[in-house]
Amino acid sequence: MQKVIDYVLSLGGYVFVPLVLILVGLLFRLSFLKSLKSAVTVGVGFLGLNLVTTLIGEYLSPAVNAMVDRFGFQLQVMDLGSGTSAGIAFSTTVGALIIPIIFALNVVLLLLRLTRTMNIDIFNYSHYALTGSIVALITDSLIYGLIAAMMHCIFSLIAADFTAKRVQKVIGIEGISIPQGYASSTVPLYALLEAIYEKLPFMKNRNVDTQFIQKKFGMFGDPVIIGVILGIIISLLAGTGFKEGATLVIVVAGIMILFPRVIRIIVEGLLPISDAAKKFFNERFGGKELYIGLDSAVTLGHPTTITVGILIIPITLLLAAILPGNRVLPLADLAFAPFFICMATILHKGDVIRTLISSTINMALVLYISTWFTPYYTELAVKGGFAKEGTNVSALYVGNVYDFVVTLFMRLGAAGIIALVVLAAVPIYFYIKKMSFKDQQNETIKG
C-alpha cells in the first residue's frame, strides 16, 4: 500500500490532477479529446504555479533566514515546513491508509447528498493524515486516528461547500470549491471576523481592495509597483546587498505578475469541465450542483492575497518574537505565507485592510497551535527519520484549527467522537436546508 501511495505522490500535482480531470470530464460526458485538452491545460497551469512557488522558495526563503539571523530571534522549536510535514504524515500507518479511506468517505457523502464537493486534491490529504497520525500517537489507537482524519475531512468539506460560491465569484472559476485541509480550517475564523467588521461603523460597507488602492493612489497601487515596494522592504529587513536586493525586488514583482496569469490558464482548462458538470447535473439531479474540490493554490492569483501574503512574512516573524508562550521559529513555511491567508481574501471579498488584520490574527493562532503540537510532531518526525533524537521541531503547517479541535476532542475517546459528529451535523443540516430552498427556487424559476 505504501509503495502505491509513494508512486501516486511521485507523479506530482501537474500530472496526477490532469489524470483525475480526464476521468471527471469523461464522467460528465465530455469527449475524450476535450477532456484531454482541458486536463492538460490545467496541468500546465499547475506546472506554472509550481515554477512560481519554486521562485518563492529559492529567493524568499534565504531572505527570511537572513532576517532571522539579523534580528537574532531566539526560539527553540524549528519550523520544518509543509513538504516535510506531508512526508511525515504519509510515512505513518494512518498515512498509508488515508487516501482510499478519505476518497471513499467523500463519495459516500456525495451519494448521501451531505456535501456537494468532490475533493480531487489528493496530495493535500496529507493534512488529514497528519491529524490522524497525531491522534493515533496520543491515543495509541489506529481506529481513533482514522476517525480523526475522517472528521478533519468532513469539516473541510463543510467549509468548502459554505465558501464555494464566494470562491467562484472572487477568483472567477465556476463549479469549484476549496476543501484543502489548511485553507478550509481558516474559514470559521475569517467568517467570524467578517461579521465583526460589518458591525464596525468605520469598516461597514467599505471595500478597500487593490482596485480601490490603484484608483486612489495611481501607479503606487499598481501590482508591479506594489511588488517593487514589498521587495525593497524585505531586502532592507534582511540586510541584503544591492545584487541580492535587486534580484529579490524583481522576483517579488514577478510573483505579482505571474500568479494571476498562471491562474488564468487553470481557469481556461477548468471551464469546459465545469460547463459539462453543470449540464450533467441539470439533466440527472434537477439542477443540483457538484463542486470540484481543488488545492487552495488556485486562489493565489488575487492581488490582495499576494500583497498581504508578502507583508505577513515580517509580521509573522515579529509575532514569533513577541508573543508570550510561542516557541516556534517560523522558517521553512514562512515564504509560503499566501497559502495561510488566501481564504481571508475570499471571505473579505478582496479587502486589503480586513485581509491584513485577519491574517495577522490567524498567524498568531498558527504559532500557538504549532507550539502546542511540538511534542507530538517531534515524536512523529523522529520516528519517521525526519528529525534527530533530542531536537524540538514543529511546522506552521500543523498550526491548523481543525487539527487542534479534532485532536482535543479525540483525546476524550468515544465521548469526543460523539461531540465531533454533533459539531459537524449542525452546519451540515443548516447548509442542506439552505441549499434545498435555493434548489426549489431555481426549479420554480425554470418552471
Task: Provide an overview of this structure.
GO terms for molecular function: galactitol transmembrane transporter activity. It holds the Pfam family EIIC-GAT. The protein is mainly α and 447 residues long. The chain has one domain (2-446). It is 71% helix and 3% strand. It has 17 helices and six strands. It has helices at 2-10, 13-27, 32-71, 82-90, 93-111, 126-139, 142-171, 187-197, 210-217, 223-238, 242-284, 303-322, 337-347, 352-372, 374-383, 401-410, 414-446, and strands spanning 77-79, 117-119, 176-177, 291-293, 328-329, 393-394. It has a three-stranded parallel beta sheet. It has a three-stranded parallel beta sheet with strand order 2-4-3. Helix 5 (93-111) crosses helix 7. The mean pLDDT is 84.
Our count of domains comes out at 1
Computed Rg: 22 Å
State the helical fraction. Answer: over 70%
Overall geometry comes to globular
Taking pLDDT < 50 over at least 5 consecutive residues as the criterion, the unreliable ranges are none
**Which oligomeric state applies?**
single chain
Number of helices: 17
The side-by-side strand order for the widest beta sheet comes to: 5-1-6
Helices and strands: which structural class? Answer: mainly alpha
Mean pLDDT: 84
Domain PTS EIIC type-2: 5-437
Membrane topology: Multi-pass membrane protein
Keywords: Cell membrane, Membrane, Phosphotransferase system, Sugar transport, Transmembrane, Transmembrane helix, Transport
GO molecular function, one term: galactitol transmembrane transporter activity
Give me a quick take on this structure:
It is a multi-pass membrane protein. With 447 residues, the protein is mainly alpha-helical.
